[in-house]
């Protein structure tokens, strides 16, 4: 009986012992440099007649720790598991993934065509990690990334802020290719052009 009590006390003491400084640090969430939001636009569902572009675009979660990121990514954000005609977005919190957003309005996007379905998740994840890990020198120029699931060909686009700043865009494009391990040329288009014509001309390539 006595030994049972001793064991119980020992167990209680161990359970109640304050965590060491190292344990405390280890268990603390790892903060990101900034807040990010995941968005989704499922355009596979039939739209109501006359519905404007963006009517199915939804902001889903905003987060600012590594732990939240992995939990969200593991649960939902796998484009390859998604239906055709869906877009997945990770944008800086406060920036909407639309040409109309003030941060995006004067910007454009680099686009990588994904040749094999299997590569979509890898490219998406590599880009997400590079963004939340602040791997781009011109991090202020970046608005976010979009993964587009399409019947014909999937694609990933990196949206940036100041399209006419060619030097910044070229640096971002080069870095992104390196991150994705892409050797084919990639192309940059201006949102302003896309507003005017369905297939916007490519302004830069790298
Ligand atoms: P898209 O989705 O960028 O091209 O734009 P995609 O993915 O090549 O085309 P899809 O047919 O495979 O989806 C397609 C069209 O959506 C554009 O021509 C616009 O009419 C509309 N659109 C796209 N975006 C990103 C915007 C936007 O930000 N604002 C508005 N108003 N319309 C947009």
UniProtKB/TrEMBL annotation:
It is found in: Cytoplasm; Nucleus. The lineage of its organism: Eukaryota, Viridiplantae, Streptophyta, Embryophyta, Tracheophyta. Keywords: Cytoplasm, Disulfide bond, Initiation factor, Nucleus, Protein biosynthesis, RNA-binding, Translation regulation. EIF4F is a multi-subunit complex, the composition of which varies with external and internal environmental conditions. It is composed of at least EIF4A, EIF4E and EIF4G. EIF4E is also known to interact with other partners. In higher plants two isoforms of EIF4F have been identified, named isoform EIF4F and isoform EIF(iso)4F. Isoform EIF4F has subunits p220 and p26, whereas isoform EIF(iso)4F has subunits p82 and p28. Pfam families: IF4E (PF01652). GO terms for biological process: regulation of translation; response to virus. SUPFAM superfamilies: eIF4e-like. Its main location: cytoplasm. It comes from the Eukaryota. GO terms for molecular function: RNA binding; translation initiation factor activity. InterPro entries: TIF_eIF4e-like (IPR023398), TIF_eIF_4E (IPR001040), TIF_eIF_4E_CS (IPR019770). It comes from Cinchona calisaya. Coiled coil: none annotated. Belongs to the eukaryotic initiation factor 4E family. This is Eukaryotic translation initiation factor isoform 4E. Residues 1-22 are annotated as: Disordered. GO terms for cellular component: cytoplasm; nucleus. Transmembrane segments: none annotated.
